[in-house]
UniProtKB/TrEMBL annotation:
Organism: Paramecium primaurelia
Pfam families, alphabetized: MORN (PF02493)
GO terms under cellular component: cytosol
Keywords: Repeat
Protein name: MORN repeat protein
Organism domain of life: Eukaryota
Key word Repeat present: yes
PROSITE patterns reported for this sequence: IQ
Length: 429
């Protein structure tokens, strides 16, 4: 065989090494053959394998730490230098770097595949849930609304601590007159002020009383008591305009809160009693009967979204017989308790679907019939809004399925078909 260039170069390098050793008189002679024995080569290979294994374990440990703490560690942060997008772009890379890059790419690819699988599973579950949904939508129940309380804040009229004894003796003598006279502002013994008319030493006629806390009443007085029409202004900005009898609100009046909410109607014993209207600043509006400041009796409650409840109220919430009309066209008519559908009722949907049956705490429970818009219907027992117990589904073609349901799932049933006037029964468990 002919000599190749590498062999020639290797021979020349050996000769050069031998010449140098002669001239330098080195005590050690270079022996390449002895240095690269099969045992030495095997040892080097084992060292490289152990080092590669260490690098691989370190890489996987860092990746696991990154996933655990969700830290934005990039590939070049892990390796300590920039990685190449294409291995061919850097042909002189060490073999260990190529192994690391492959491990990272494989790990990232596995994560992407796992995400894709999980997303597919979620989509399948959603699809299955939608396919199994056999009830018309009924998510917007009246119980989901936050009913406005009539007693948003206690109506406050502190007219019991009025004092009409002037602080000075001169003023005490000044007010003593048998005829009705108007006097300038006079300070009372408790620190309050009164400016207005007097008669026989008492406030009589029209006047303004400013209390110690700066709240005030302006209106008509009879013998030191508010009688007739007057306005009571509170220190926080709330005020009342209406009729008074002996310092007590009686008759028609309007109370306005600082946020714009107000009640206007009949009053008795300083509280709304009788027929009135309460309008809330957030859009609620109630028209109807009040008892001791709260909604009680027949009334109409208008929701901010346009829904309307008309019926009976007890203790400020729907109770008794009433009808709720949702803004999207749904209607419930029936019994209520503590603001929830409770008892016998009928719920109708705009597409013609209808439920006629019983409710407990706002959910279908007991015996009820559900009519679909396509003519199909379910007759049977319910629990917490689901088919539960013995029941029967009748399809538009007359086919019926009798069986037993548990939490909306059929566990046993019999299929009855009507073919040419003949009924055929078969078990379909």
């Amino acid at each position: 065989m002919g000599n190749c260039q590498q062999c020639t170069n290797f021979t020349l390098e050996n000769k050069t090494a031998e010449i140098k050793t002669k001239f330098t008189k080195s005590k050690h002679t270079l022996n390449f053959a002895k240095k690269f024995t099969p045992q030495n080569i095997e040892g080097v290979i084992k060292i490289q394998a152990v080092f590669k294994g260490y690098i691989t374990r370190k890489q996987l440990s860092l990746l696991s730490t990154q996933q655990k703490h969700s830290s934005p560690i990039l590939n070049h942060d892990i390796l300590g230098f920039e990685t190449f997008t294409n291995i061919n772009d850097s042909p002189n890379q060490p073999q260990s770097l190529i192994i690391k890059q492959n491990l990272i790419q494989d790990k990232l690819q596995e994560e992407e595949e796992e995400k894709s699988i999980r997303q597919v599973e979620v989509n399948q579950q959603l699809c299955q849930s939608n396919c199994n949904k056999d009830l018309p939508e009924n998510q917007s129940q009246v119980s989901e609304f936050s009913h406005p309380s009539s007693l948003k804040k206690q109506f406050s009229f502190d007219m019991t601590s009025l004092c009409f004894i002037p602080k000075t003796k001169n003023d005490q003598l000044l007010i003593v007159s048998q005829t009705q006279i108007k006097l300038p502002i006079i300070q009372m013994a408790n620190g309050a002020y009164y400016e207005g008319q007097w008669k026989n030493g008492k406030a009589y006629g029209f006047g303004k009383y400013i209390m110690v806390d700066t709240s005030s009443y302006v209106g008509e007085w009879v013998n030191n008591k508010a009688n007739g029409f007057g306005t009571f202004q509170l220190i926080d900005g709330e005020f009342f305009m209406g009729h008074w009898i002996d310092n007590v609100v009686e008759g028609q009046g309007k109370y306005t809160f600082i946020d714009g909410t107000f009640y206007e109607g009949e009053w008795k014993n300083d509280l709304p009693n009788g027929i009135g209207v309460q309008t809330y600043s957030n859009g609620w509006r109630y028209e109807g009967s009040f008892l001791n400041g709260i909604k009680n009796g027949q009334g109409i409650l208008r929701f901010p979204d346009g829904s309307i409840y008309e019926g009976s109220f007890e203790r400020d919430v729907p109770s008794g017989i009433g009808s709720l009309k949702f803004q999207d066209g749904r209607i419930y008519t029936g019994e209520w308790k503590n603001g929830l559908k409770h008892g016998k009722g009928v719920f109708q949907w705009p597409d013609g679907s209808k439920y006629d049956g019983y409710y407990i705490n706002d959910e279908r429970e007991g015996y009820g019939i559900l009519y679909w818009s396509n003519g199909q219907k379910y007759l049977g027992l319910w629990k917490q809004g689901l088919f539960h117990g013995n029941g029967q589904i009748i399809k538009p073609n007359g086919t019926s399925i009798k069986g037993k349901w548990i939490k909306g799932k059929r566990i046993q049933s019999k299929l009855n078909t009507n073919v040419s006037g003949k009924t055929k029964t078969s078990q379909i468990d």
